[in-house]
Design a protein that fits this description.
about 75% helix, globular
């Protein structure tokens, strides 16, 4: 799909912005779960279990608010905007821009273990594609759409965590 290769997808441009965001969030959840199902038989922690690591039982509400609102906003700045800006400044192709962003996103999640680095890489690829796709309209839309897609992805993963663990 060209969307995940260079950020182009003309049919997706006809969707409303909330539908685009929901589509990217659904892709992030889907790819994260697929990576989890592949890695879990290898005795790696699945992506749903990892969600509990960042939650602090004695301050659950502030932890949830940070996980769903603050972290996506910060991650979009330093995991999508910055690497994509640097790659674009270095005159790299869109595919290399996405690769740089996804790799940086994965490296920033290394503290959660090697399996989660792979999960983060796949999610980072989707979020970088979202940023490139939305950037064609404006940088503000790219930031907003990517942040909201990441927040929705985290909200779904946390909901799955609370339902199954």
């Amino acid at each position: 799909m060209p969307l995940f290769r260079d950020g182009n997808c003309p049919p997706l441009r006809r969707w409303s912005e909330p539908a685009q965001i929901a589509g990217f969030a659904a892709c992030a959840v889907f790819i994260n779960l697929i990576a989890g199902f592949v890695l879990t038989p290898l005795q790696f922690t699945n992506p749903i279990q990892v969600q509990g690591v960042s939650l602090k039982p004695n301050s659950l509400i502030p932890s949830l608010l940070m996980e769903i609102f603050l972290y996506p906003a910060a991650e979009t700045l330093y995991s999508q905007w910055l690497p994509l800006f640097l790659a674009r400044f270095a005159k790299r192709t869109p595919l290399i821009q996405i690769l740089w962003s996804a790799t940086w996103f994965a490296v920033l999640h290394i503290k959660l273990g090697p399996a989660y680095v792979l999960h983060s890489f796949t999610v980072g690829w989707v979020l970088a594609s979202c940023f490139l796709f939305s950037r064609k309209e404006s940088w503000l839309k790219a930031y907003r759409a990517t942040t909201l897609a990441n927040a929705a992805h985290k909200a779904v993963m946390l909901t799955l965590y609370f339902l199954f663990y």
